[in-house]
Amino acid sequence: MRVLRQSLPPAESLAASVVTIGNFDGVHCAHQELFGSVVQAARSLGVPAVVLTFDPHPAQILAPERVPKTLTQLSLKLRLIAEQGVDIVWILPFTHALAQLSPEEFVEQALVRALGARQIHVGANFCFGRNRQGTVDRLRQLGETEGFAVHVLPLRMMRGEPVSSSRVRALLDEGKISLANRLLGRAYELAGLVEPGEGRGRRLTVPTLNLATPQQQLPRTGVYVTGTLLGERRFESVTNVGTKPTFGPHPLSIETYLLEDPPQGEENRLRIQFLYRLREERAFPTSEALKAQIGKDIRRTRRYFHWQQFFSARMAARSVGKS
Fold it and tell me: Which CATH architecture best describes the domain 2-158?
């Protein structure tokens, strides 16, 4: 997948393409359906499948006091989009000048002149242009004039509500990680560098790896079953998101305990995938009581992975039996 980082007017233009447009924070299952639609159409026409996205998030320019915490760092967003079979991602720098383009100007400069769009695929609630004046109906009208078709995918619903990035954020705030993962179509992930801790866990409870708190939406404080990637290897793990109340007030931290010893090395980057919420974080009367509770959390985590492997093997056996 090619990644283009260029402003308007672009240094490089395409003769033809199939395009979708959006911020795509989270790359959730509704986004994935949209990418699939674009890729399928592009393959049938023999042209590139293009995702036009923005950096920074438009709210950082238009309403910085209300900018939401991101669900995906840009590197993860690009990796997830690449997995959908997209050919080109154009990261368009979002500026005040870009925000002032009318719907007509945006279509002519970005979609027609730069991308040679033959089809544009969007969701039913898509808006664009200055003050979000451009609607799906206006996009269709412009397509009739400029020579591109517009395909509108209906809203993806789950449990009676639309799948959206804001809904995923709300579920993470509530600690409903399992449902958030269903909307995402994968485990929610935090990534960053390992930072040194105070050494208290190694002395008093269990040794942990500390993730430098990312500028990203965090799950609600609590203890979680997680998968932790250290380099290329994935470990079963228990992760605490919280403020260590047993030891007095502390800044919020993310600490993960690996269920087996990691290899010795200099790897200093973590990826933590949140799978299931075990319990609330709470203060314990002593470090020994906390250590006993951590032992229970570890046993429950081992059971979680045991049953996950059992049901995965069962599903695989059924698939083989049907083939």
Answer: 3-Layer(aba) Sandwich (3.40)
